[in-house]
């Protein structure tokens, strides 16, 4: 604590991301990255940008990537906002649509960055307890005062909420913005993007970090009606009009175009997820129904924290969760088949040793 800190800094309690250790000799299943590298076309597009344009500022309006996103999601360019990872887009959205003095709601078990932004920007919040089966209690999100935000599929539970429930939440919040954080939607089914032209209070946020293998490049985006996007632009231009750089723009554009590679990796990860889920169940784990690139599990008798620590000592990073509403759970990112086979070899060794 320093006497020079502002009130905002004093009340902040920053987000602590999953461990990013020396990854070369570790299997990293703790921060929901894609285990597959970006496509060849992405690498070539980035290289070509390095070779030609790096001395020039990027476009502050990111027109060509926004155009490409608009085509992909069948929207207009003025319905698309691009930022430095969806974390930045989320931060701008909290500033643009949520106010001090008006209480927002998000699930009690959810992405832990939401309370961080709320505290930083002095936005009061209410955490809504999940149902016993970890699904979202839809009606508890009705008639919110200052806004609603939740991930779909939820993180860390991996559970997907269907579009009918989302419509109900939107219908019952006509006077505030409902933000749906779709970081993992490409591993699930229908996106709420199809509702954007019906609901002026809907903002959908997505990322290139998960399904498009570009966590290292930091590109996220928001889709919503024109006025919401204009609000985000006003915030962005008050901080740094060039939030995403030339390499990010080139890489993201190429990733969007390479639909073959995208479809291939998504299908592969979903197949691995189904295989991993059934293998975990055989070993006494309860696995929540996952629509994401990770699973959320608990064992009927083993302590999750002990397993997490043992795996870490033995070269595999997974995530241990212990907080109000979550007891004894692990979140495991779906890796390649080879990584998951190594994971099961180690899991079998420790489970046998203990019994
Ligand atoms: N939302 C959720 C629910 C997440 O789990 C993550 C990844 N930690 C993000 C947003 C942020 O992703 P990024 O900033 O890499 O786009």
Automatic annotation (TrEMBL):
Protein name per the record: Histidinol-phosphate aminotransferase
Reaction(s) this enzyme catalyzes, per UniProt: L-histidinol phosphate + 2-oxoglutarate = 3-(imidazol-4-yl)-2-oxopropyl phosphate + L-glutamate
Protein family: Belongs to the class-II pyridoxal-phosphate-dependent aminotransferase family. Histidinol-phosphate aminotransferase subfamily.
Gene source species: Virgibacillus halodenitrificans
Enzyme Commission number(s) from the entry: 2.6.1.9
Stretches assigned to the Aminotransferase class I/classII large domain: 25-347
Pfam families: Aminotran_1_2
Subunit organization: Homodimer.
EC top class named in words: transferase
GO molecular function, one term: histidinol-phosphate transaminase activity
Gene3D superfamilies attached to this UniProt entry: Aspartate Aminotransferase, domain 1, Type I PLP-dependent aspartate aminotransferase-like (Major domain)
């Amino acid at each position: 604590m320093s006497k020079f800190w502002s009130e905002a800094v004093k009340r902040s309690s920053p987000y602590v991301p999953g461990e990013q250790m020396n990854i070369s000799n570790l299997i990293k299943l703790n921060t929901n990255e894609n285990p597959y590298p970006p496509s060849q076309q992405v690498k070539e597009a980035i290289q070509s940008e390095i070779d030609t344009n790096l001395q020039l500022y990027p476009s502050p309006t990111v027109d060509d990537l926004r155009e490409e996103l608009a085509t992909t999601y069948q929207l207009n360019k003025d319905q698309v906002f691009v930022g430095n990872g969806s974390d930045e887009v989320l931060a701008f959205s909290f500033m643009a649509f949520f106010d001090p003095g008006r209480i927002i709601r998000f699930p009690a078990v959810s992405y832990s960055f939401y309370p961080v932004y709320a505290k930083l920007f002095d936005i009061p919040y209410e955490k809504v307890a999940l149902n016993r089966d970890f699904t979202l209690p839809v009606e508890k999100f009705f008639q919110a005062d200052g806004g609603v935000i939740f991930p779909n599929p939820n993180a860390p539970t991996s559970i997907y909420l269907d579009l009918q429930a989302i419509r109900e939440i939107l219908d019952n919040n006509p006077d505030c913005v409902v933000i749906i954080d779709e970081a993992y939607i490409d591993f699930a089914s229908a996106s709420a993007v199809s509702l954007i032209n019906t609901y002026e209070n809907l903002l959908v946020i997505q990322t290139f970090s998960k399904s498009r293998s570009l966590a290292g490049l930091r590109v996220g985006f928001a889709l919503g009606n024109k006025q919401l996007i204009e609000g985000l632009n006003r915030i962005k231009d008050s901080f740094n009009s060039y939030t995403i750089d030339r390499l990010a723009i080139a890489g993201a554009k190429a990733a969007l175009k390479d639909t073959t590679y995208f479809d291939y990796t998504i299908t592969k990860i979903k197949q691995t997820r189904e295989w991993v889920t059934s293998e975990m169940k055989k070993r006494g784990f309860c696995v929540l129904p996952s629509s994401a690139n990770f699973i959320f599990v608990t064992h009927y008798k083993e302590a999750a924290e002990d397993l997490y620590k043992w795996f870490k000592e033995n070269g595999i990073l997974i995530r241990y969760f212990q907080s109000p509403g979550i007891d004894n759970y692990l979140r495991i990112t779906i890796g390649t088949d080879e990584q998951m086979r190594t994971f099961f070899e180690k899991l079998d060794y420790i489970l046998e040793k203990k019994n």
